[in-house]
Write a structure and sequence with these properties.
Helix content is 45%, strand content 18%. By secondary structure, the protein is of the alpha/beta class. The chain has a 5-stranded parallel β-sheet with strand order 3-2-4-1-5, sandwiched between helices. A 5-stranded mixed β-sheet has the order 6-7-10-8-9, sandwiched between helices. The longest helix is centred in the C-terminal third of the chain and has 26 residues.
Length: 293
């Protein structure tokens, strides 16, 4: 008989949020695959449980190499418990490869439901929760980050992101640039922990706040795009969309064509808006020079 793969949700902050089944699974598993064995030790100590099986590390750096070993154990009848540092395995954490390998070998896959930073942040954000999509971590490089944000600029579902605290200000500034400074968002920090904080506001306001420095584990929830017909978009919005594409590496001609195609507008309309904005900037610069003289 084949074994069972158990994906176990672990607390994202408060250890009292651990699901009741977690302690029993930790004690019964033949193999425990942990993203961080030191954190696993703290978890088991906090729950007052002694692991009954072999403990192995299973993290981003060795996930590909260790998956066949764990899959073989499952095929041989072992009960393998997968735990990550916090939340549910496979959700921006190791797990997907092992699940896929288990499914391929017709091994049973089940889960111990537990805390999720994605759903917790979504629930407390104050933003619509009926439809949402999880985008994980954005790229670190500015150009790639803007490209990813541009891909979902017109997404009407609520968006959920993870972000490192030292990159939060840059990310919020990029979101304000692509989505607009007034797009509503919530920055959820240290969820379920002692210094939990949920900061709500427009993206521009939140970017200015984050520039002062933020600590802790961060989840960002962003309101979806409003239902606006292309005819209702003003010249400023057309120019903004072209500039976002230019900053992501597209040539202006290509960016204008792409925005026009995306909105179903004549290229001439987008082109005229860009030219008018450019002329206005030149006029403003000339006026400033004249005043200085």
């Amino acid at each position: 008989m084949t074994g069972t793969l158990v994906l176990a949700g672990t607390p994202i902050g408060d250890i009292e949020d651990a699901p009741p089944r977690l302690a029993a699974e930790l004690a019964a598993a033949d193999v425990i695959a942990a993203e961080d064995t030191r954190r696993l030790r703290r978890l088991t100590q906090g729950l007052g449980v002694t692991p009954g099986g072999r403990i192995v590390s299973y993290f981003e750096g060795n996930e590909a190499a260790r998956t066949p070993e764990l899959a073989d154990a499952l095929a041989g009848g072992a009960r393998v418990l997968l735990v990550t540092d916090a939340g549910m395995p496979s959700v921006s954490d190791p797990g997907y490869r092992l699940v896929a390998a288990a499914v391929e070998r017709d091994v049973k896959v089940t889960a111990v439901p537990g805390p999720s930073a994605v759903l917790t942040a979504l629930a407390v954000s104050g933003l619509p929760v009926d439809r949402f999509c999880f985008e994980g971590f954005l790229p670190r490089k500015q150009g790639e980050r803007l490209t990813k944000l541009r891909e979902v600029a017109d997404e009407r579902r609520t968006l959920v992101y993870f972000e490192a605290p030292h990159r939060l200000d840059d990310t919020l500034a990029a979101m304000a640039e692509v989505f607009g400074t007034d797009r509503r968002a919530a920055v959820c920090r240290e969820l379920t922990k002692t210094y939990e904080e949920v900061r709500r506001g427009g993206l521009g306001e939140l970017a200015a706040w984050a520039a002062e420095g933020v600590r802790g584990e961060i989840t960002v929830v962003v309101e979806g795009a409003p239902e606006t017909s292309p005819q209702e978009l003003g010249p400023e919005e057309l120019v903004r969309r072209v500039r976002v594409r230019e900053e992501a590496g597209e040539r202006r001609k290509e960016a204008i064509a792409a925005v026009a195609a995306e909105l179903g507008l004549p290229k001439r309309e987008v082109f005229d808006a860009v030219v008018a904005a450019k002329n206005a900037e030149k006029a403003g610069g000339s006026a400033g020079q004249a005043a200085g003289a």
